[in-house]
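User: what does the whole thing look like in 3D?
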Amino acid sequence: MAAAFIVVRKEDLEAQQNAESCQTLRCLTSELGCLTRSDGSVSFSQGDTTVLAVSYGPAEVRINQEQYDKATVEVVYKPKVGLPRPIDRKREAILKSTLEAAIVTSLHPRSSISIIIQETEDLGSNMACCINAACLALLDAAVHMAFMVAAVAVSVMEDGQIKLDPNKKEELEGRATLTFVFDSADLKVVSVVTSGTFSQEEYKKSIDLTRLAAERVFQFYRDSLSKKLMQSI
Amino acid sequence: MKVCVGQVTLPGDEFDMSPLESNKKIVVGPGLAEFEGMIKIIKPGILRYREPATYWIDSHQKRYVANKGDLVVGIVTQKVGDIFRVDIGSSEQASLSYLSFEGATKRNRPDVKIGDIVYANVLVANKDMEAELVCIDSDGHSNGLGVIRSGGFLFQSSLHLVRKLLNPNCVLQKTLGKTFEFETAIGMNGRIWVRAQSDIQTITMANAILASEHMNNVQIETMCKKLCKVASKMD
Amino acid sequence: MRETPLSNCEREFILKCIAQHKRLDGRSAYDYRDIRIAFGVSLGCCHVELGKTRVLAQVSCEVGQPKQTRPHDGVLFVNVEMSPMACPSFEAGRQSEEGVELSRLMERCLKESRCMDLESLCIVAGEKAWHIRVDIHVLNHEGNILDCASIAAISALAHFRRPDVTVQGEEIRIHSMEDRTPVPLSIHHFPLLVSFTFFSQGKHMLVDPSEKEEKVMEGKMVIGMNKHREICTLQVTGQMLLLKEQVLRCSNIAVTKVTVITELIFQALENDKQARLKGEKHGFAELVSGEKITSNKQPVTDVPVSQAMEESEEDGSSSMDSDSEESESFTQHASEERKVEILAKGVGMIGDGGPSKWIDLTCDDDHAESKKSTKFKPELIELDGESSEEECQVVLDAS
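Assistant: Here's the predicted 3D structure for the full assembly of 867 residues, as structure tokens:
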């Protein structure tokens, strides 16, 4: 299936040229509660990559998925083009296990906490964007969580250079793409998603770099929610 | 990150115990939980404190989780034998016995139809069991509870908006009350039933309540004034 | 998931208001809600907001075989996706009756109106042709998905560009985006769907129904029309009978609505084209304004590489090791500090107002018993029958 075309912008090219001196995390934007029918929703973007995520929970659960001691976490990922492919199912599984670690499921037995993610624009670091959006959607719905999660991706280029928060072009050119998910309490790794080949040294470097970037993402969560929550009498 | 009262907290933050004297007994409410010997925040919201030693997180959410003692507005969805199944917006439907209405006996059944709205009290709320509602207090009096069947309009809002409306410091109801005569039933599950003297007034009230979600008292007053003016012209 | 049922009270109130020519959102009977059309960074991606109803459409293409019956034509495929994102009652991966009706109507609107020149999509007759796929995702259901979807679909098709193709003898070359400017699809006209809902045996009629109005309606008429006043589709559903005059009146209303909306689509396409030419920022990320309290924007942030490197050097060992060290020190740290002991799970009431209802009573919490220090006797707290949420009473113990 041929995907939709991607247009490379002038700014992106310039940013790439400046990249060597300092690694940058692209511009983050969020709009909480953008959809009305769900319990929590967010439109989240990292640079031009945008994702829409909603969460329901604790809600009614299908009888065959009911668990008597904890809530069932469901994740649905919807690609923009075509029907969900096996790779999207894999993405759902990763998201599910990551979010299950963060959600306190024991508080709501026999219910479901579902997260639905709609890809709206994939221009690099889509997986990281999905995880961040899912976390924000859960925060917007005020689902009980033991900690928050933030994901940051890096691309290892052919020459061994590590590029933080890659755009589509860098992702395609790179030798490997690594996405690290950290928790907010101690900034420990919750999950790692990798593709391609990389050395141990590159892995260590990436983990340190993404950990620093994850702190910025957590700060962004805090700013977004403070802005929304501080408005009360 | 350690947090103190009045601050915005996010899940994973740690409750700051250092200002408290040791051996102090405290009560922790919704949004706080014990993890590995520490109290942690598990919900985004604002940390609140009430005398003598109660702490809880005031969060913004839409989904209702049944809580004992809450007054809720439910919609009857089914009649099963002796009980009614009532949708209260939580993960499960609640049950409401036909005997828990004022003056109801085995012979004298209350007149409840599917689709009716009831204003009820949550008697049993437990994460492992389905919630049970009653429309009477312990003396058998209705006390304003029961089926609402006198017109009006029902709409859904978020849970924090309901808590805001019920806060004695909130001016919305008082301001609206200056222009309109109205009757309302506010459920902790986010459902609000309103009936004013005319339909236009009812619509105006519903819109005013929904619009006040992110407003402070001053903004609410100006908004109400504007809306009332428009509504009185239309009548 | 279950959807909130509609109560009798709401149904009666809405019908009463409609009979009095009033609508809940203050519109008059023939008013549309505000329409916002936005395009994504990728071509053929369109996002339409009709009030709070939201639809996203994405057009994609691939080379495939044309249909045997029509060897000279390309193929247009329309797919409508209704996920639980839009409304809790929609199920992922399974089309509801409503979804099938929507897909069919969209197909009729786009394919059977012959609004697109399919012959121009043919590369080699009988062998190769472009397959154009329109994916329509319903994001938020606040009524009248149909009109919103038709605006999104046709705008996305107009926005889309397919790669240029050259055929030299046997060789077919598909040029990349950089190689040759991609070509737009040839669209003859813009068919749009306009829905009319009827109440009380067709006595009252509303344009652009909201979600609640759709739930109480008796029947619906959908007119597909382009700005040349040509009707492309017409469908009547529901249990009602319409008079000839009513159909004519509706089609007259449709004419004005379609003209306005078509103008709006052209305007949006033109704006997007200008923004792209000037190299300005475009795409969905630009739609979020930082001014609303629910939205937030963090500009591009620098993450110092040197700091990251230093940290890893300081640790000496791999970061995995440092993690485990950290956790050890973390638990030690915790044990040195004051401990929390749970005395009992209790029940709290917030909804009722008034003072807190946490009451004291005897309890035998094994956990508290075993852990408690000698100098401290735990005060026993009542369990009010069941513990509701996560309220519990804890003690800070300086051991």
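In plain terms: The helical segments of chain B are 159-166, 172-179, 199-211, 217-234. Chain B touches chain A at residues 8, 10-12, 14, 31, 33, 35, 40, 42-46, 58-63, 65, 90-92, 127-128, 160, 164, 167, 169-170, 214-217 (CB under 8 Å).
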